[in-house]
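Chain and conformation:
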Amino acid sequence: MKILKKAITLNVGLVLMGSAVFAQDLNDAKKAIDAEQYQKASSMLKSLVSSKASDGDNYYNLGLVYLKTGYIDSARAVFTKGITADPKNNLNLIGLGEADMLSNNPTSAKTNFDKAVELDKKNYKTYLYIGKAYLAQDKPSDDVSKPDFANALANITKADELDSKDKDAEVFLAQGDAYALQKKNSEALGPYMRVGDIDPNNRRAKTQIGKMYKESRAFPEGEKELQDVIAADANYGPAYRELGELYLQWSSFGTDKEKAAKAIENYKKYMDLTDKSLESQLRFAQFLFYAKDFKTLEQVATALQVPANDPKGIVVSRLKGWAAYENKNYPQALTYMTEFFAKEKDKSKILGNDYLYLGKSQLQAGQDSLAVMNIIEAAKIDSTNADALAEAGLSLMKAKKYGKSAELFQMAIKYNPNGKGSLTNYYYLGQTRFYEAYIAQKEKKPFNTAALVEADSALSHLAKVSPEFALGYFVRGRIANLVDDKANPKGTGIPYFEKYVSLVKPEEVAANKTNLSESYNNIGAWYSDKDKAKAIDAFTKSLALDPADTYAAARLKELQSPAPAAKAKGKGK
């Protein structure tokens, strides 16, 4: 899980300040980068830049750290300084090209790459690093730019040709990455396996193999690969992260609590072995959301300290809002989500979940109109959020706002016609439209006939796709009764009431007692002057369900009473 794109400008002098705590060794810094210990790597590289100010490799690797943590402007500053310090070293030109790729500017990227080739066209590493830059694999997931796989593979292939003795495992690692990022796992496997042949101590290739198994949902195989990495190097953090994400998916995103706990345990281990930087804490917070550990998420998000004007503060507001809502802290959720929307000026970065949690928080605060508007936006972005439309519809139905409730169920059907919960949406659309019309009739107001026709159509669809959905027939019978000609009734609702009572199973009678009684009363009333035996049977069943039903008792008594005797004719005089 990646974090949002960040771009801050740091004073170059500040960038180059370093700590002498870490060993002044570029290979150690590269190992720290590979292990995603970015703060450690940054400190080491700042110190190297300070002590070896003419070595362009140090600037390049420091710039990469900034790119990997999303600080593109800071990376540019370092690469530019590196070009000045070591003009014959082409790596910093490649670094600028990668920054261009991450900024969605491939034209500028190619200009920088071409300059790098002119400086050293015979060195395989020139093409290797250009290929890796075209992949831009560590860019934030919400960035609009995409890896340029064609140019990436062309350059990596050129590097492979120039490295004719196949002595550099990094070439095969880049090949594997180029295929893996395209989800071409079969093609990626061979290069990753070659990495192990050249460099048996390389942990990332085997970690990537475990990751590919995870993506193929071959969880036991992926688990074994990643545990093998950990057995070989218990301090290699990325393996714990991938194992955590494997268990997260294996848990069906928090559904299997035991595996979800393993997921969190491994991700915490990854955090302990890496920076616990703001960036990694944000990734952990996002992980906790998908693992459904909302209490820990709220604690982590609330504890995050973000510098003023840092764009990551927007992400923190988002996560605090999501967590607060899930923990039923609705007023605080509304505060956080309102704060998030006030801060986020780029609408393209607003997620469906952002509108969803804002809308749901507004619904809890009684801000119905605003809530509905935002939940609809959430469903437009992601149709799975249609569940929330139905949830809001139920909330408004309980508040007896039947018209608004029906509109939400219509929307839920529109965005989720056949998915989870869709059957009940058709039912509730019928029910809310019935209540809306029933109250209008009771208040002697005209009701919306077209809306009832639409509701009947929804219930008709429900009967086709789920013929055993008993309550659909009951509501359809009610609607038919409501629109029936009162002066000359056609009894159009009776077949639906009869179908309903036939579908209710013995073990379901208690839960359906009121509806069953109403259905039997309608059936009895219709047959009273057409089929006396049927009418008596219906009213008898109604009274068995509800002995206090005065209507059924009176009608049954009337039907069972003997017919009055005919008056005798008078005798003629």
About this structure: Residues 1-23, 138-144 have pLDDT under 50 and may be disordered. The chain is about 70% helix and 0% strand. Residues 422-442 form the longest helix (21 residues).
